[in-house]
Amino acid sequence: MLKASYIITLLSGIGIFNSCTGNFINLPEYRRQTVFLQKMDTPYGNYLAGRVAHLRQDYDKASKYYIKSIEQGMDNADLLGKTYIILASQGKIEAARKYANIARQKGDENNFIDVINAVYAFKHGNYKYARAEVNGIQEKTYKQLIAPLFNAWSFVGEDNYAGALNELKKLEKSEDMQTVYCLHKGMIADYFNDTKEAKKNYGIIINDKANDMSFRALQIITNFMVRTGDKKQALDLIAKYYGTSNIKEMLNSLREKIEKGDKSTEKLITTANKGVSEVFLEIGLLFKSVPMGYDYAQIYMAMSQYFNPDNDVAKIALADIFEERYMLADANKYYDTIGKDSELYYPAQMKKANNLSSEKKYDEATKILKKLLRDNPDDFQILFNLGDILRISNNQPAAIKYYTEAANSIYYESNKYWPMFYALAVSYDKNKEWLKAEENLKKALKLSNRHPQVLNYLGYSWLKYNINTDMAASMILEAYEKAPEDGVIIDSLGWVYFKTGDYDNAIMYLERASELNPQNAVISDHLGDAYWCGGRKNEAVFQWKQALSQKEDNEEINKKQIKNKIENGLDNFKTLTIKDESIKKSLHSLNEITE
Asked: Looking at 309, 338, 353, which one is the last position of a domain?
């Protein structure tokens, strides 16, 4: 809801990690290394154990060992800084406050200590002290964004409507902050039952065509509309975003909840804590929208959860950060806390299934999707994802079944469905039903506007089956023109030269493909064939042996055939001929450019 340039400007001035320790939640990639330690229950031993856990992104263990080290007498600035930052990132504010204040006594001037103290004071009803802590921070981000919102809700906690509005006025003149300003002014007005003022501010957000409304804002505003007797307007607002949204299941769930009246007449923001939770969620989402802000985002969203553990939007956002860091089990812990009555239950379960699939826990992922399918029997995305998981786990007949059901669930074959027809074709091909695979590849080619991946698959397959040589070469040339740095496509181009007997150029392209995809078994097998026919027989045997040991696309190679080539060499293969002079010319011209 804010411009990226504005967010970056804010980030450049924030000082959460401005102490001499330079601590971050997530340590830089180059510092992640395998470390083997003998367990030592000493201050330094526990510090090293915490450090290893930190490097491995196991924050629970890291904080545990860091705290143990401190309790045993090791309390330097670096250790204390790591400890309170990790604890705050987990929403453990009481513990974070303890170690932050020890660090402050030892000279740590990190202003994030003031934020921790302010958050703790607010949660425990000491609003005046909370304001003093935040107002003492001089950095622009706090002055321009955080303090006005935080302080406004602290006045709500004191039942001071005028004080809250006066604080919010500090945001009124900022064009970049208008949506945030109106949203919080509307929530505060609604809290104090000032329906007219709430409606006015929510109306400004609805009518602002320059900004997309967040799902959280949509939840809050439609909740207000239903409670004030305008259910139709709430449903119309959801419909307004439905046509162009990529969160249709969430919108469907919200619409159904409104239609049924399930808890939709209860206020969402009933306490100052829930209100300030929205502040920290808003800030967290702002920082999450730029990669350099992920550490900040995690801390602020954890604080949002501290104030309102029931905010599912914050849970989804936190889980998303863990996914970005490939901490999939941690992400799934958050998804598991989202109940079935939540609008976010469907996307949470879908994302959990995807994470399990990424971890190769295919049975668990399939179980989740089949459970979702019982409640949503014609849902395209569930059917498509089931097909994907089953294809990846090499259960092609079942994959074909779900892909076909997905295809039957769509009303018309629009461009956005090409990946489904492509995936169905791959499953048919792996299931040795080439004619059906070819039919779906042609459909995917048309719908995708001749996507290079589809061009390459169809062209390469025709070469593999020794058919349509001219068209196959033409398609692979077109794919290469569209994606000249794609190793798999370069492999196919090398294979065109190999199949037509041009071994020098075959070697050149296949070597380049191998450099881009050094662990690909198919490419190594092809390069071995080209070396053999090019007279480089020792190198050929080496590449064939490499192919047998490589994991990428290992299921695509014929291991028995490769072992035979290692023993006896390569012979009795059919050379293909390109008849179209224009294709020959294109292949020749490509070589001239490359040279």
From this structure: 309
